[in-house]
């Protein structure tokens, strides 16, 4: 009797395990189908980016001739997809360069961007630019007098694609903004004379 009971219990256990695996495989198949459908038929488009404002909160020469900076930047992002949303991860990096010299850095806040949504993100940047010959501020002033101060803002951020409540895939987005501003004087409103942002989204590249 006990042997028959054990065989029935084992059989029920095996059926339960098989059902669990079948459900798991079905779920994977559904997610794969959704991903395939959206990536191959919907042709998702990458978000677009535009620098909305650039403010100088601090820019001063230090005793060691380095330059301490503190900027506040607003970036506007638009999601052009009607069915696909994006989740911007916490592990991001934003840098500001003047003549290839890193002068400030920070990170994007993590946020969720729904389909067809426009989001304005505020970024705080600070740092100390190496300035061995002590001429950085003089160079900035000279650039200002020549018509504008060139800056490069680089953004690197992990983004997860989602549809409804299903998260599909994470990829990396890189954005480079070439700027020309009229001034970097502390406390003065900075006017952006040139603003060209180019996204480089790895996932959306053709294979």
Automatic annotation (TrEMBL):
One example of a Gene Ontology biological process annotation: defense response to other organism
Membrane topology: Single-pass membrane protein
GO cellular component entries: plasma membrane
Keyword presence, Nucleus: no
Superkingdom to which the source organism belongs: Eukaryota
Pfam family, one: LEA_2
InterPro entries, per database record: LEA_2, NDR1-like
Subcellular location: Membrane
Transmembrane stretches, start-end: 16-39
Entry keyword Glycosyltransferase: no
Domain Late embryogenesis abundant protein LEA-2 subgroup: 75-159
The protein's name in its UniProt record: Late embryogenesis abundant protein LEA-2 subgroup domain-containing protein
């Amino acid at each position: 009797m006990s042997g028959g009971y054990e065989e029935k219990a084992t059989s029920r256990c095996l059926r339960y395990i098989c059902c669990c695996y079948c459900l798991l495989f079905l779920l994977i198949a559904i997610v794969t189908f959704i991903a395939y459908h959206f990536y191959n038929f919907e042709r998702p488009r990458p978000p677009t980016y535009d620098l909305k404002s650039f403010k100088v909160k601090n820019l001063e020469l230090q005793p060691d001739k380095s330059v301490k900076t503190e900027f506040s930047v607003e970036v506007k992002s638009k999601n052009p997809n009607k069915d696909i949303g994006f989740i911007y991860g916490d592990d991001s990096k934003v840098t500001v360069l003047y003549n290839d010299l890193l002068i400030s850095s920070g990170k994007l806040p993590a946020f969720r961007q729904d389909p067809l949504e426009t989001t304005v993100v505020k970024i705080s940047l600070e740092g100390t630019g190496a300035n061995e010959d002590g001429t950085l501020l003089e160079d900035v002033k000279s650039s200002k007098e020549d018509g504008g101060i060139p800056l490069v803002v680089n953004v690197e951020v992990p983004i997860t694609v989602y549809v409804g409540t299903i998260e599909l895939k994470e990829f990396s987005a890189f954005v480079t903004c070439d700027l020309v501003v009229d001034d970097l004087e502390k406390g003065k409103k900075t006017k952006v004379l040139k603003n060209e942002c180019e996204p480089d989204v790895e996932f959306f590249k053709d294979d």
